Amino acid sequence: RPGRPDGAKGLRFRPVEPNTKDAVTVPSGYDQNLVIRWGDPILRGAPDFDADKQSAKAQAGQFGYNNDFLTLLPLPGEQGRQVLFANHEYTNEEIMFRGYDPEKPTREQVEIAQAAHGLSVVVVQEERKTGKLKAVPRHKLNRRFHSRTEFRLTGPAAGSELLRTSADRTGTKVLGTFNNCAGGTTPWGTVLSGEENFNQYFGNLDKVTDAEAAARLKRYGFEEGATARRWEEFDTRFDLAREPNEANRFGWVVEVDPYDPDSTPVKHTALGRFKHEGAEPQLTADGRPVVYSGDDERFDYIYKFVSDKRVRRGRSRADRAHNMTLLDDGTLYVAKLTGDSPKKEIDGSGKLPSDGEFDGTGEWIPLASGDESFVDGMTAEEVYLFTRLAGDKVGATKMDRPEDVEPSPRTGRIYAALTNNTARGVDDGAGPDEANPRIENKHGHVLEIAENWDDPSSDGFVWRLFLVCGDPEDDSTYFAGYPKDKVSPISCPDNLTFDPYGNLWISTDGNALGNHDGLLGVATAGERRGEVKQFLTVPKGAETCGPIVQEDRVLVAVQHPGELDDASAEKPGSQWPDGPGKINRPSVVAVWRKDGRRIGV
Ligand code: FEO
Ligand code: CA
Ligand code: CA
Ligand code: CA
After folding, report:
1. Is 423's pLDDT higher than 70?
2. Which residues are CB-neighbours of 478 under 8 A, at least 6 positions away?
3. CA–centroid distance, residue 159 to ligand 1 (Å)
4. Is 280 in the pocket of ligand 1 (CB under 6 A)?
5. Distance between the two ends of the chain, CA-based, in angstroms?
6. How confident is the model at residue 427, as a pLDDT?
7. Which ligand is nearest the CA of 294, by number?
8. Ligand 1 lined by 89 (C-beta under 6 Å)
């Protein structure tokens, strides 16, 4: 009989071997179930999923596509139940629809895809006897947010002329949220969600005649001609030439109150507009929220927002309404990181400098606060709307694709996943620096930040690279100094979360080591700091998203099973989750210990 697995508390499981199985694989002694799949009905009146009879109306009452960020909130008074919140980042039409013609999508397909984007709130219930977690359809809190749901723009840029369209002369009412990638859970019981690659929904950049507008759109990655989904052919708001300000209404952090199904969700302009991966808050000692957010693009920046207002702890309607305004008043900052080793020692190979660490100091450069801009040549409104340009002007540090930026609830230290950047040091791309030390960075790294005086509102910090990812046998990798013969390989860190013991859990997207993506845990303190252990892997073509690690259960969002890098690649792709001949369905999976005990203890 093998002995009890060792590891830091919370990480005592036998690591899963890297693999290419078309399955969710979990450690021995653990079990799993599908909590909810794309198309499962959640609202009253929504039909069961039928791939061959799907409609936009059905989809608007069903769980959306490509579940990404997940969070679970308590549901007091309902035994064994919690409230699950999920982002639905994007759609894979070529997988969703049999015989899909990308040149000629039908109106129905377009409208199904639009309804499959957005967010879901769905109550889930634990089955006492089995350990399974199941969705509760038709619960009164269940809700879908999609392309036609009304959102309210708030904060200092709300109502700006650049946010007004022919359908909304006020510049404050937006229909829909798109490409919601990661998110955050607030201490006041709401959920934040980042609008990430919103550029891909808007076409015809080449027909935009205003040169300044075109340059700004270019900085955000908008493209010429038709989009891949061709929504602009069905709805003029997605045509940059016809409705030039509509695109300015996306790229924000969204806030939802999942406990009030009648509430209007909000887009907070004070947090700036960029490709928000997620938005994760922590509180200052005097109760003001500070929200960290990464802009997921090669050579883009890490930001934080510090609120001027204090959270109210009460649960009254007035307290909740106050808390929904916390992210409207405050200061937006961008990060600049400076290494402490000589530049010549950072040669792009990933070899550690002579002081033994990639580390240094940093400053949070203020960009704007309320109506006041701190950026030469830009108004505050321009800073919020075109935040990337503000970061460019103040010399922020160009990072290797900042994904989740997550404060540890235990220590307040902040961890940022820099997923990869194969353009680092190539052609015109910026060269290596101590915070992004490898050229052609295929596997990414994880940055650790400690705010000065442990104060989240501080304008300075110290930082070090916690992990430099890849195959531990590769000399350019680093696992916080932990012996590399005792760790799992890790590539392309994306989403981050913490377990109840303070261990960091990392899900991956795009494993460049040839194996499938997965979820890994790593101790951040103590003797085992840096010991990375793989907890699960996901099926063919899938990315691992939205990890939640509770005391007795782990949840992951299995996103885009069957997605192929190359449309001409091998068929069939994945058969997950419903088996041969069935259409792949992105799903939420729960994992628990068969003996009912706590995870990793
Ligand atoms: Fe949607 Fe940056 O991952
Ligand atoms: Ca992500
Ligand atoms: Ca150093
Ligand atoms: Ca990703």
Report:
1. yes
2. 350, 352, 358, 465, 467, 468
3. 28
4. no
5. 18
6. 87
7. 1
8. yes
**Separation of alpha carbons 387 and 275, rounded Å:** 10
Q: Which amino acid is at 235?
A: D
Asked whether 196 lines ligand 1 (CB < 6 A), one says yes
Query: Is the separation of the CB atoms in 562 and 581 below 8 Å?
Result: no
- What pLDDT, in 10s, does the model give residues 300-310? 999 999 999 99
Ligand nearest to the CA of 492: 4
> Does any ligand 1 atom lie closer than 6 A to the CB of residue 381?
no
Ligand 2 centre to CA of 565 (Å) is 17
Q: Would you give the distance in Å from CA 276 to the centre of its chain?
A: 8
Q: Of ligand 1's atoms, which has the minimum distance to the CA of residue 277?
A: 2
Which tokens sit at 343? Answer: 């530049």
- Ligand 2 centroid to Cα of residue 495, in Å, is 6
| Ligand 4 mean position, distance from CA 545 (Å) | 8
Q: How far is the CA of 127 from the centre of ligand 2 (A)?
A: 30
d(CA 558, CA 94) in angstroms, rounded, equals 18
Q: From CA 218, how far away is CA 215, in angstroms rounded? A: 5
Q: Is the beta carbon of 277 within 6 A of some atom in ligand 1? A: yes
Q: Quick check: 1 pLDDT over 50?
A: no
Does residue 296 line the site of ligand 1, with CB under 6 A?
A: yes
> For the segment 252-279, what is each residue's pLDDT rounded down to a tens digit?
999 999 999 999 999 999 999 999 999 9
Cβ of 403 less than 6 Å from ligand 1: yes
Cβ pair 148, 49 in contact under 8 A: no
Tens-digit pLDDT profile for residues 17-59: 999 999 999 999 999 999 999 999 999 999 999 999 999 999 9
Q: How far is the CA of 600 from the centre of ligand 1 (A)?
A: 28
Residue 569: pLDDT band (50, 70, 90) is low
pLDDT at 570 over 60: no
Ligand 1 atom with the smallest distance to the CA of 181 is 1
Paired tokens of 33: 């179930």
Measured distance CA(242)–CA(245) in Å, rounded: 9
Report whether 224 contacts 205 (CB < 8 A): yes
**Integer angstrom CA distances of residue 570 from 482, 514, 518, 562, 582:** 39, 16, 22, 11, 17
Distance, CA of 235 to CA of 584 (rounded, Å) = 28
- Say if CB 142 and CB 129 are below 8 A apart: no
- Any atom of ligand 1 within 6 Å of the Cβ of 232: no
Contacts of 104 (CB under 8 A, 6+ apart): none
Residue of the CA atom closest to atom 1 of ligand 1: 181
- Mean pLDDT for the chain overall: 96
Sign of the Cα pseudo-torsion (221, 224, 227, 231, in order): positive
Q: Tell how far the Cα of 575 is from the centroid of ligand 1, in angstroms.
A: 24
Q: Give yes or no for residue 181 CB within 6 A of ligand 1.
A: yes
Is the pLDDT reported for residue 568 higher than 70?
A: no
If you average pLDDT over residues 225-248, what whole number do you get?
97
Q: 52-96, pLDDT tens digit by residue?
A: 999 999 999 999 999 999 999 999 999 999 999 999 999 999 999
The whole-model pTM stands at 0.97
ipTM of the complex: 0.94
Q: Which residues contact 210 (CB under 8 A, 6 or more apart)?
A: 244
